Amino acid sequence: MAVKKLEKANWGRYFDRVSKNIPLELAEIRVSSLNLGNQVSAEWLRIFGVTYDHKDDILVISLDGFEHIIHRPETIYADESHGELSSLEAIDTSGVKHLLLLRKPLSLPAPATAVDEVEEAGKESFPASDAPAWTGS
């Protein structure tokens, strides 16, 4: 893992590129400061992207049903592993730290189909023979 400080002039391009490569990631956002303590702002929601708006000087992290907005980010550090973003720390002008953690969703194998032995035996023996004639008695 390589932690690097991002240059503010490159934030827009960097987050555009990152947002294209994280379509199936899950994200957790933690916020910490002396006044707030440590808070979890969002817990393992699907992330749609990260954008930086230089006109309003805001960093927006878009999650499923939630947007986390960081006003006036001052410093941003990115932690990349094998060229993919794994975490991000943004420190705003108030000294509040915003930590974005990313992970891929857990891939589980397809559920095994249960075999109903009675049902299988019925399928194999049907039709066993012609039905007996109806005698109408």
Characterization of this structure:
The protein has 137 residues and is mainly beta. Helix content is 14%, strand content 48%. It contains 2 helices and 8 strands, in the order βαβββββββα. The protein has an 8-stranded antiparallel β-sheet. The chain is elongated and about 95 Å long. It starts with a strand and ends in a 12-residue tail after the last helix.
Question: Can you tell me the number of structural domains?
Answer: 1
Largest sheet entry = 8 strands, antiparallel
Could you tell me the CATH topology label.
Answer: PH-domain like
Number of helical regions:
2
One letter per element, helices H and strands E, the order comes to EHEEEEEEEH
CATH class descriptor: Mainly Beta
Strand ordering within the main sheet: 1-6-7-8-2-3-4-5
Q: If you average the pLDDT, what whole number results?
A: 89
* Helicity level: 10-25%
Give the beta-strand count. Answer: 8
| Computed CA radius of gyration, to the nearest angstrom | 27 Å
| Quaternary form | single chain
Distance between the termini: 85 Å
The CATH architecture would be: Roll
Describe the global form. Answer: elongated
Poorly predicted regions: none
Beta fraction of the residues? Answer: over 45%
Instruction: Supply the helix-strand structural class.
Output: mainly beta
